[in-house]
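Researcher: I'm preparing a figure for a lab meeting and need a structural model of a single chain. I don't have an experimental structure, so a prediction will have to do for now. The sequence is pasted below. Please return the structure as C-alpha cells so I can convert it later.
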Amino acid sequence: MIDFWLAVGLLLLVALSFLLIPLLRGRRVQREEDRTALNVALYQERLAELQEQQTEGVLSAAQMNIGRAEAARELLADTEGVSAERVSRLGKPWPLLLAMLVPVAGLALYLHFGASDRFELTRELGQAGSPEQITDRLERAVKAQPDSAQSLYLLARTYMAQDRPADAAKMFERAAALAGRQPELLGQWAQALYFAGNKAWTPQIQGLADEALKTDPNEVTSLGLKGINGFESQHFQQAMDYWTRLLAVLPPNDPSRSALQGGIARARDRLVQNGGQVREAPLPAAPGAHLHVRVTLSDSLKDKVLPSDSVFVFARAVSGPPAPLAVKRVTVADLPVEVELTDADAMMPQLKLSNFPEVQLVARVSRAGQPTSGEWIGRSQPLPSKATGPQSLTIDSPDQ
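Model: Understood. Here is the structure written out cell by cell.
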C-alpha cells in the first residue's frame, strides 16, 4: 500500500507545480516591476534637480538638455529586459490557497469515490496466509464486489475445503445466478447441498444434477454425485453407469480414478449378491466432443523450421471466447501427425468442444514454445463441432 500512496503523492506534487511555478514567476515579475518603479522615481527626481539648477542659473539650456538625455539613458539601461507590467492578476493569497486546497480536495474525492479498500484487498489476495486469513480476505472480496461470480466461486470452494457445505451452497447459488447457471456451478451447488443435508437426496439436488447433465453430459461433479446416490439407494447398476461415464472423461493420471474403479467393483459385487445381472454401462454418445485432425507441413516451409520446434494443434469457437477449447502439443519432427481433440483436452472446464456448435481448427509452429504466438500457422474453415469425419490441416502461412 505504501507504493500506492507514494504514487499519489507524486501526482499531487505534479498538480501543485502547475500552481506554484506561475506563483513564483509572478513574484519575480513583481520584484522587477518594483525596481522599474524605483528607477522611474529616481529619473523624475533627477529631472527636478536639473530644472532647479537651470532656474538658479547654474546650468545653461544646452547643459540642461545634456543632463536630461543622460538621465534618460540611465533609465533605459536600468529597465532594459524588464517585461511590460501586467494589467491584471489574481490577488496574492489565491494561488497559495489553491495550492493548499488541491491535495486536500484530491484526497477527499478519492476517499469518497475511490476504491482503496479494493486495491488493498487485491494485494492481500495475492499473498500467502493461513486458511482463516484466506477465508477472511475472500469474504471481504465478496462484500466489496457482490456481483463477482469468480469471488463467490472461490469463496464457495474455500468453504467446502473447510467442511462448511451450507455456507458453500449459498455462495454457489449466488455464483450460478450471476454466471448463467453453468453446468460446473450447478454440479458443485448440488454437491454442497448434499453434504449440508447429511447426505440426504432431495428433489432440489436431483433437479440441479439433471440440469447440469442436460447441458453437459460429462459434468464430472454431477456424474459422481448421482453415482453416489445410486449406490446409497442400492441402485447399483445406476451407480455403475454414472461412475463408468465419469471414469471415461477423467484424465488418465487423475488420482481419483483408482477410488472410482474400486467403487464400480463394489457396486458390481453388491448387484451380483442381490441376484441382479450386470450389464455394461453405456457411454453417452458425444458427437462434437471428438475431432480427428491430420496435420501436415507445407513443402515450402520444411527448410524454414527445426525438428524441435513446437506445434500446437487446437480448436477454438467461431462465435465465443478466443481461448482454445482443446489443445494438443507435438513437434515438427512428428509431422505429419494425426491427433484427436476431445473435451478431455479442454484448458478450462467451462470451455469444451461440446459446448459450442461451430469451431475452427488451428495449427501453429512456435519456436519459443508459446501457443499464442509463433512463426507459421495453418487454419481451417469453420466446421461443426459435431463433425465425425477426419479433418486435414496444413501449416502454410506466416503467423501474423
